[in-house]
Amino acid sequence: MARVDEPRLMALVRDPENPGHLINIFIDECLYYDTVNRKIVYYHQNGKAYISATLLEDHDECPNIYGMGFRRLDNKNFVNIKKVTKVDKTLGEVYFDNVVTSQSRKASIAKIHTRPFLKWFRIFNSSAEE
User: Fold this and answer.
1) Hey, which of 31, 40, 56, 115 has its CA 20 to 30 A from 108?
2) Rounded to a whole number, what is the distance in angstroms from the first to the last CA of the chain?
3) What is the pLDDT along the chain (130 residues), one digit of tens a residue?
4) Is the dihedral of CA 109, 110, 116, 119 positive or negative?
5) Are 79 and 120 in contact (CB under 8 A)?
6) Is 0.90 topped by the overall pTM?
7) Helices (DSSP H) in 1-130: which residue ranges?
8) 66 beta partners
9) Distance (Å, whole) CA 21 – CA 59
10) SS3 state of residue 37
11) How far apart are CA 49 and CA 121, in angstroms?
12) Strands 93-95, 106-108: parallel, antiparallel or unpaired by DSSP?
């Protein structure tokens, strides 16, 4: 049993009633969980089985992810484009720090996504740098 001051753990899962949507469930409300075809399945006390959202592909069709500002900029990432401060088209990287150094937080951007991203970036981040 968790201590009173400890937060309850949640799992990000696919919504079985709304394909493409992701939701959070409280793990302590599950009867048990196991793996099926290498995916964690949570068996909730409400009688539903929830499959863990463990792959980036699970996020591709989720409108909540896009509503928060995340876009898939490479095959290995989703980037909160509202947080990007600078774009380096030559290196194919986006940065999140106001002053870019060798220690700056960055993510890669695939060439195929560069043009659509730059269009959005110019509109919504007029103070940021390319």
Assistant:
1) 40
2) 50
3) 556 677 889 999 999 999 889 999 999 999 999 999 989 999 999 999 999 998 888 888 888 888 888 889 999 999 998 899 999 989 999 999 989 999 999 999 999 988 888 887 777 666 555 5
4) positive
5) no
6) no
7) 63-67, 111-124
8) none
9) 8
10) coil
11) 39
12) antiparallel
